[in-house]
Design brief:
Elements lengths: L34 E7 L11 E8 L5 E2 L3 E7 L9 E4 L3 E2 L4 E8 L12 E2 L9 E7 L9 H5 L4 E7 L18 E4 L9 H4 E4 L32 H5 L11 E13 L4 E6 L12 E7 L10 E11 L8 E13 L8 E2 L29 H7 L4 E11 L7 E4 L24 E6 L14 E13 L3 E8 L2 E3 L15 E12 L5 H14 L5 E7 L14 H13 L6 E3 L17 E6 L5 E3 L12 E4 L2 E4 L4 E2 L14 E7 L2 E9 L21 H21 L5 E6 L7 H6 L6 E2 L12 E3 L2 E3 L2 E5 L6 E5 L16 E6 L4
Parallel strand pairs: 7-8, 15-17, 18-19, 21-23, 25-26, 34-35
Antiparallel strand pairs: 1-2, 1-11, 2-7, 3-6, 4-5, 4-9, 9-10, 11-12, 13-14, 13-16, 14-15, 16-17, 19-20, 19-22, 20-21, 22-23, 22-24, 25-41, 26-28, 27-28, 29-33, 30-31, 32-33, 33-34, 35-39, 36-39, 37-38, 40-41
Helix pairs in contact: 5-6
Length: 801
């Protein structure tokens, strides 16, 4: 399984989007996890109003920019007549992750405060008390005038009906007036129920630069640039839970010393109070978000910051980052000493990972930093922290980040990682490290290396990995010279069967990828007799043109294996139906058998195709397959939009061996280990359990026909040895997972978020009694990877019945 930053296939600890949908007159499109209408105000310039113009504010709850080219916002009166038309305001540009986008509308004659500089401007005079606003893909006016009709218009990205609006999502939000807007909560939740998602309150427009109007700020005079501290301190903003008690409110003159500055990505700076309170739950550090504007402060500046308190959610089921937005900053002095960093080590980090809310949100629970690691890290959010002599448990990624552990004795693997042994063993000492200093990047490190000396920075939170250390001072790398393993060759009487996920290989890939993967087969795996490949794509990869064949891809791969010193492999596969097996769109991913015809025979039985199920034929000489190669029950809903298992019948020294190649559905959709819901929901597990049951049923049919049948089930199962998926696959003890036969410290083939775990498996039937099994560590622990998976191999003796 390939892990994408923006997409689809995520592991334990990955981010999910799980939003409920309230019943509507007709079903709107799925609630948006990205762009939403965050605030609507139609009272601008009215009698009693402070602001001079109406406005519509958009927000982006996603982790990537949301482009608005050829988008529009559109307005319809609350009770449209036959002649009423949707009024259109075209948009340009994009909404930054976590950012806002302000659309100014018509001005009235009242009010005294202008909007902040709008990102788009229209001329629509919106009603203060009621109407409908839609974010639309396209600039053509909508034609729907009822909730039911609008619900089936796929151009509508989000819709807000307020007051007595006929067009709305479920119930309209009430309370809008000349002095009140309707706004979405800080979590930007979108459940397709306007009344549940938005509430009325004082207008608070924010533009893409993070600027607010100041028209609703507290107090007289100039609250944006005070010269004396206000009454609110950082620990008042952070509070004793995960959510700020001041979220949504403006604060003035918050004092602190600048401890770090971020000039790229999510720009801003961190401040820390030099006069902390005595409550360990209430943090003293805070991120100040400056949006598209580069910070104008320097480390060591003593500042007073005014702004709006907000909770930023990097993704739908993550925890939030408390921050100040639309800031106004006064620098009082420079060159001040920084607060002492909090030391994180084996003694200070608790052994329990997170409190439980029985699957619900832990956000409202009082923090207990002495009991739970996630509570400690939350209490230190934005605070300077320090680690020392930490072992690397996750190699440097393409995003210049590494995982280290402050608990060297916490479930160590044989090669220096940290084992993820059960759903209760999240490993509390893992911390992701990034560098804020472009001149001192994170070193290129492999698992088992050491970040020696001290590393100091601020504690931050992000969607990938959760809590992380944004380093201002990095330790030095101690290279422990991790080597790629080479397994022994099989003996003459041993059949060697292996599995390898080759990470979306297609004929358009660089030759270097083919060569590196081929060396892994020929050298590190010592040329197995049978090799199950996962993630072979069609020959032109992610191109949607109906092509499904993989001949050119497999020709390049097998030629590269020969060039690396291996045998000339033959191959077998069943081409999928176009677009029916999931994976990268257009790629037509599938499982493939390679086999060495000098060592093993493949039994070809015609008739296997994408839709024909393979069945077991009970003969006087034992079990055979109806087709070979074939696919297990491809019409089953368990395999919808997923790779179907490939079954092949082989003969080794004249004796039958049945091999089942698998690639179960990914963990995309599971809630992250570090998320706000505890314990996390593993929604993808349901599909894998169904898939495992299908394979188990097929294996049982083989063993029913011949209880001494030699069956090898292998591949990327995308689940752990301790999972319900494995329970379903082994039901009735028809298969034995070989990963559990290794010492605990060697039971892994994949590394994610600093946790060494296994997603790849080889299982054998009871007749395979004499075997030698090995996970060959050549990828997962290294910064330089040919694939994100390590291959596995079993060498088994095939004796006469």
């Amino acid at each position: 399984m390939h892990i994408s930053r923006h997409g689809s296939a995520l592991l334990a600890g990955a981010v999910a989007v799980t939003l409920s949908v309230t019943a509507l007159p007709a079903a709107f499109a799925a609630p948006s996890p990205t762009a939403v209408i965050s605030e609507v105000y139609g009272g601008g310039g009215n009698s009693g109003a402070t602001l001079t113009r109406d406005f519509i504010e958009l927000a982006n709850a996603g982790a990537a920019p949301y482009g608005l080219s050829d988008f529009s916002v559109q307005y319809l009166p609350a009770t449209p007549s036959a002649g009423s038309l949707w009024q259109v305001t075209p948009l340009t540009g994009s909404i930054a992750p976590g950012g806002r986008y302000l659309v100014a509308q018509a001005a009235g004659t009242g009010g005294t405060v202008a909007l902040p500089t709008p990102d788009a401007t229209g001329t629509v005079a919106m009603s203060a008390s009621g109407g409908s606003v839609a974010l639309v893909s396209g600039t053509a006016p909508l034609t729907c005038k009822t909730a039911a009709d609008c619900a089936v218009d796929t151009r509508i990205v989000d819709l807000v009906g307020y007051g007595s609006a006929v067009v709305r999502e479920a119930a309209p939000v009430t309370g809008a007036s000349a002095t009140a807007s309707v706004a979405r909560g800080t979590a930007l939740a979108d459940t397709d129920d306007n009344a549940a998602d938005l509430t009325a309150g004082a207008p608070s427009p924010v533009n893409a630069a993070g600027e607010s109007s100041g028209g609703t700020g507290p107090g007289p005079g100039d609250p944006g640039n005070p010269t004396e501290p206000g009454t609110v301190r950082v620990h008042d903003i952070q509070g004793a839970t995960r959510l700020s008690p001041l979220a949504g409110q403006s604060v003035t003159g918050v004092p602190g010393v600048v401890t770090a500055v971020r000039t790229s990505g999510s720009r801003g700076f961190w401040i820390q109070d030099t006069a902390p309170d005595s409550d360990a739950r209430t943090g003293e550090g805070l991120f100040v978000y400056t949006g598209s504007s580069a910070p104008t402060v320097a480390v060591g500046d003593s500042v007073l910051v005014s702004g709006k308190v907000a909770e930023y959610y990097p993704a739908a089921t993550t925890q939030s980052l408390t921050q100040l937005t639309a800031p106004k900053t006064t620098v009082l002095s420079s060159g001040n000493p920084l607060p002492a960093a909090v030391v994180l080590d084996a003694a200070s980090v608790p052994g329990a990972y997170a409190p439980t809310a029985n699957g619900g949100s832990i956000e409202a629970l009082p923090l207990d930093p002495a009991a739970y690691a996630l509570d400690l890290y939350e209490a230190l959010e934005g605070t300077r922290v320090r680690i020392a002599d930490t072992r690397v448990t996750g190699a440097t990624t393409a995003y210049d980040e590494i995982w280290v552990t402050v608990k060297p004795e916490e479930q160590p693997t044989a090669r220096g990682g940290t084992l993820y042994a059960s759903y209760a063993d999240q490993n509390t000492g893992r911390i992701k490290v990034l560098s804020l200093d472009a001149a001192q990047p994170v070193p290129v490190a492999d698992v088992g290396d050491v970040l020696s000396g001290t590393t100091t920075g601020v504690m931050d939170y992000a969607s990938f990995g959760g809590y992380n250390l944004q380093a201002t001072e990095l330790g030095t790398l101690t290279d422990n010279d991790l080597r790629r393993e080479v397994t022994r060759p099989q003996r003459g009487n041993e059949l060697a069967v292996a599995t390898y996920n080759v990470e979306n290989l297609d004929a358009l890939d660089d030759q270097a990828k083919f060569d590196t993967l081929a060396a892994g087969v020929a050298v590190n795996l010592s040329s197995p007799d049978v090799l199950s490949l996962e993630e072979i794509q069609d020959d032109n990869g992610a191109v949607k043109d109906g092509a499904v064949g993989s001949e050119a891809t497999l020709k390049r791969f097998t030629d590269a294996i020969v060039a690396a010193g291996g045998p000339q492999y033959a191959w077998r596969y069943v081409a999928p139906e176009d677009g029916k097996d999931g994976g990268e769109p257009g790629g037509n991913i599938r499982n493939v058998f390679l086999f060495n015809p000098e060592r093993v025979d493949f039994v070809d039985r015609a008739g296997g195709d994408a839709t024909t199920p393979v069945t077991v034929v009970d003969t006087k000489k034992g079990a055979t397959l109806s087709v070979s190669p074939g696919r297990i029950n491809p019409a089953s809903s368990a395999w919808a939009d997923s790779r179907k298992p490939l079954v092949g019948e082989f003969r080794f020294h004249g004796k039958p061996v049945f091999v089942i190649a698998n690639h179960f559905t990914s963990k995309g959709g599971d809630q992250p280990l570090h998320g706000r819901n505890q314990e996390p929901e593993r929604s993808s597990e349901t599909k894998r359990v169904q898939q495992a049951a299908e394979v188990n049923t097929f294996v049982k049919s083989l063993l029913s026909a011949d209880r001494s049948a030699r069956v090898v089930t292998l591949g990327d199962l995308n689940d752990f040895a301790f999972s319900p998926t494995m329970d379903a696959l082994t039901d009735g003890r028809v298969l034995r997972p070989l990963i559990t036969t290794l010492p605990a410290s060697e039971q892994y083939s994949y590394v994610f978020d600093g946790n060494s775990q296994t997603l790849d498996h080889i299982l054998t039937s009871p007749a395979v009694s004499r075997f030698d099994y090995d996970v060959v560590h050549i990828n997962a622990e290294f910064a330089d990877q040919a694939s994100d998976h390590d291959p596995q191999i079993v060498r088994m003796q095939v004796n006469k019945r």
